[in-house]
Amino acid sequence: MKDIVKFPAFKVDKHTVNAKRIKSLLLRLALKENTAYGERRIYIQLPEESDHCNHKTPGRKRPRRSRKLKDNTKTECVPCLDSDLNDSQFLNTFRVTKSLYQFLVGEWQKEVVEKMVEAGVPVAELEQFEQHVLAALYYLGSAENIASASSRFKIKTIDFMDSILKFSDFLIRQQEKYLTLPTLEERITIAEVIKHDSGFPGVFGAMDAALVQMQTPLSNEEQDYCYNNTPSGSKCAFVLQFIVDHRLHFRDIHLDAPTTGTRIQVFQESGAWFHLQSLTSSETHIVAPAVYPLAPAIMTPHMTEVLSYQEALFNENHREAHKLAVNAMTIFKSRFKRMQKLDRHVDNNRKFVKAACILHNIALMHEDETDGRSSFFTTAGRQGGAHSSQGGANINGRGASSSGGTPVSAKGGGGSCRVSVTHHPPPLPLSSAPTLLLCSCHAPPPLPPSTSTVGCDSCPNFVLQCCSKFWCCILT
Hints:
The chain is α+β, with helices and mostly antiparallel strands. Helices cover about 40% and strands about 15% of the residues.
């Protein structure tokens, strides 16, 4: 151990004899005048391993044991750029097909090249967009936190988030191409398909709203996006209003905060409100729940206690047509699991929701063209029923009843029923007696005295099943 007093103010800059002599004289003068301030330093020299004798040295620490992964952790499809995943593994990991992934990379590079040519910049080696696209697809398609997801790609968290934001901005720029309201000719074509499927004429889309849950935001934004206060904490979400067509494509979306009010008030703040007001009854219309206002271009079901046969048939056809909205949200949240629970950054989340809606349309269009039908329906569609109650068509806590004031539950009318989705369900076979098909989760409507109601487990007239049992109401 050494006990030394040092004077840092008189440190020798150059190790020469004259410099040391001058600093020594200055230090002595300062000591005589009591103007020198020193520092006491104690140096302890620890023994080396060779100095130990006649006793055992402590051994090294044991290596850490590898943590056992949970049973629900998927390890067979690690999202690494060097990994060679087959088509099924790629779809389960990144939630899109390989061909769609290559299409997105090509479209992004094409957009960058066009901008460089317009600006007169020589097109040199382009940035590799493969990693950006893969990172964004994995983040949107998984519920994994961003720190863990970025470690899988072996990049920093800030770079990982930057890649997702760049890809989201690219998708949002494609909104005019992939997410627009249909023209008159498109509305007529869509109405023919929906009439063939559900029996409801003149319908070009189904409208509803759903909650997109997110973590509690920072600062004062919590007050705007909180829709339910519980002892365990606040529940926050976006209100996503959407219109879908017969192919489950989003034709219009509107994001708002739950504090805006009921679904009617959210609807009045959207662009679809002004568009639908310009349509006349001679043209096509959309179907919507009873919480929305009845208008020439908006068809809502009858809500009276006693329904006539025509009103009951109208409600049944309306329900069949409106299943498009429930099925679209089921597929949307099944494909993009991030939409079941977003992070706490509101501005980024707003971009992610819009980008996911556009990517949903691109995926359905591309998969229909290449595979004849959506490949995602065959792999992930069976998981969709579990999400219908989470992202169903009703808003919990901020919704409205037919009067527009009381809240409605987020659980759909079908409860925990499973939803079997097809693009074009077969039509009802023609018979001499009309037939009504209802799920057993719903009470059968009032029918004329000459009607016999039979509960059965299967029926040849079945079109779209929402649970294992349903009411088969045969009108005799």
